[in-house]
Design a protein that fits this description.
UDP-N-acetylmuramoyl-L-alanine:D-glutamate ligase, nine-stranded mixed beta sheet, five-stranded mixed beta sheet, 12 helices, 14 strands
Length: 351
């Protein structure tokens, strides 16, 4: 096991010789983002600031009633890979799209961001997935997701050669709904770890944790090396309202837990160290869509490039601050420009 350290440059997280910083596995979908009112969210019977799975009929109905929006390739893990590429890192993505218009849009959009995406289009089955995201005036987002073909990822879709080249592998919790997708994630994690890489998991949403609680616990206690969660997701995972107890439980399970706390910043925890990261302030908050995704991009890029825990966490804060300053889940300017931002005062505790 490679030691993690908070000293800049001393943490060679995984094999330096690998060709890809991070490979992501997730739900490949096209995001449709529109601003709306709280009244619209309530009238549609939606749960504000949450992710709800919907069927194709509901997706068509909601799309027809929501206002005009921005359409771009999306999905939580795909957004993170785009962020890593924006930092100047190397990233590849594994996800499933259909041979249809939205599938072509997704593939072209990912490649245009600099992310390697070469999973063959599915020629049968449901349509390409889409996520209808409603942003209210308080910058909170309510997501309505039609999974389509994306949830039908299979082990055969996982290109072993790609995963073997990864320093880090990120799998998103949103994908953990279909048995074939679960097998694909398990396969990817096994391949990555056998090749000397590290496996990371994003819990994605409290609803995901509640639906798959025991399976997530088994994953975190097993092949997962790095865990991404917010406070609510971590509390749901360990079934406690005591934040300190949840942190201690995570530290016993994984090499590194990255816990976001909104305006209070984030906490990076290893079995021996706690590193507190301030939230970065770049501009007024416009849209929180993608904040967690870009935070993960900053942390993973930092770890893959040998940065220490504090420096990697600070990159996560900077990336999250950039993306919430505008509408959309991906950076509006190259995140590589943020690499020269001065670090805030480090706050850490070694146990």
């Amino acid at each position: 096991m490679t030691e993690l350290s908070s000293d800049n440059g001393s943490a060679d997280v995984v094999g330096v010789g690998n060709a890809v910083d991070v490979v992501g596995v997730g739900n490949a979908m096209v995001d449709v983002i529109a601003t709306t009112s709280d009244d619209f969210v309530e009238a549609e019977g939606l749960v504000k600031n949450s992710m709800t799975l919907i069927d194709e009929a509901r997706a068509k109905q909601l799309y027809g009633t929501m206002g005009p929006g921005i359409e771009a390739s999306g999905g939580s893990c795909a957004n993170t890979m785009a962020g890593i590429a924006s930092f100047g890192g190397t990233a590849a993505y594994i996800g499933k799209v259909s041979d249809d218009q939205l599938g072509e849009v997704f593939a072209h959009d990912m490649r245009a961001t600099g992310v390697d995406f070469d999973v063959p289009f599915a020629t049968s089955g449901p349509a390409t997935a889409r996520c209808l995201i409603l942003v209210t005036p308080d910058a909170q987002r309510t997501m309505n997701t039609y999974l389509g073909i994306s949830s039908l990822l299979e082990p055969s879709d996982v290109q072993e050669a790609t995963v073997q080249r990864a320093k880090l592998l990120l799998c998103e919790g949103y994908l953990w709904d279909v048995d074939s997708a679960k097998q694909a994630i398990r396969k990817a994690m096994a391949v990555a770890r056998k090749a000397g890489g590290r496996a990371a998991l994003s819990l994605s949403d409290t609803f995901c944790v509640e639906r798959h609680h025991q399976e997530f616990r088994d994953l975190v206690a097993g092949p997962v090396d790095v865990l991404f969660a917010n406070r609510a997701e971590l509390a749901a995972l360990y079934e406690t309202d005591n934040f300190e107890k949840a942190i201690e439980a995570a530290r016993a399970d994984v090499d590194l837990a990255c816990i976001t706390m909104g305006k209070k910043g984030s906490l990076l925890a290893t079995p021996t160290e706690l590193v507190e990261i301030e939230a970065a302030e770049i501009a007024p908050v416009v849209d929180t869509t993608g904040a967690g995704d870009q935070y993960a991009a900053g942390v993973l890029f930092g770890l893959a490039r040998g940065f220490g825990l504090y420096e990697a966490g600070w990159l996560g804060s900077l990336a999250a601050a950039e993306v919430i300053s505008h509408v959309g889940p991906r950076p509006a300017r190259p995140l590589a420009e943020l690499l020269d931002q001065p670090d805030r005062q480090k706050s850490s505790k070694t146990l």
